[in-house]
Amino acid sequence: MALEPVTSPARIFTLILTVGVSLLLLIPIGAAAQIVLTSQIEDETQTQVIVVMDPTGAWNNQAAAKNDRLERAAELYAAGVAPVIMMTGPQRAFERSQKELEKLGIPANDVIYQPTGSDTLGTLAVVATLLKDLGWSSATIVTDSAHSARAQVTAGKYGVDAHMTPSSREGASALTSEYIAREAIALVWFYLYNQWQVPRILTGK
Q1: Alpha-carbon span 174 to 33, nearest angstrom
Q2: Nearest to 163 by CA among 72, 42, 57
């Protein structure tokens, strides 16, 4: 039996509405899938700097999240991934972080600090600008596993050759359903709005 053609305005409206709702549902699902897949990446490609994202916006215990990131950055440094670690965030936290890295075997001269805001867009804009000033283009970004996807796409929009390796998948940095949901919303907002406001600071990539 042949299907009746969709000709009436009501049927056309229903079809458009169904397709629209389906697409709206697929967008956050796709974002969540990207977050989970990116969280599994441990890219230890050699780069020019290891960037430790400030955990002010971390979903769980910020102090524990900071420790996770510092430990992961120290591991990457010891593995020869990059010769320099760049700390981001407010000035008041830098000296404490530097002392923690020294305890983990990182020479003070190999730790640099760049004051930034607490949000991903602002922090990575400053990082990209500093990389440009130094003549660098690649960075290994250390952050929570759930935040890795948004950090990677944001850094990429600024022109940074970003390689991701999560700080941890346990404790304060665990990939929980609540954390994925929050990051999925932020990632969708980035795709729909923020990415059009982001200037390409590095043009060599």
Answers
A1: 16
A2: 42
Dump pLDDT digits (tens) for 128-147: 999 999 999 999 999 998 99
Q: 79-110, pLDDT tens digit by residue?
A: 999 999 999 988 777 888 888 999 999 999 99
Report the distance separating Cα 61 and Cα 92, nearest Å.
18
The Cα–Cα gap between 9 and 72 comes to 58
38-168+177-197 classified as CATH 1.10.3720.10: no
Q: What gap in Å lies between CA 85 and CA 4, rounded to an integer?
A: 65
Contact 59, 35 (CB under 8 A): no
Q: Nearest 5°: phi and psi at 40?
A: -85, -10
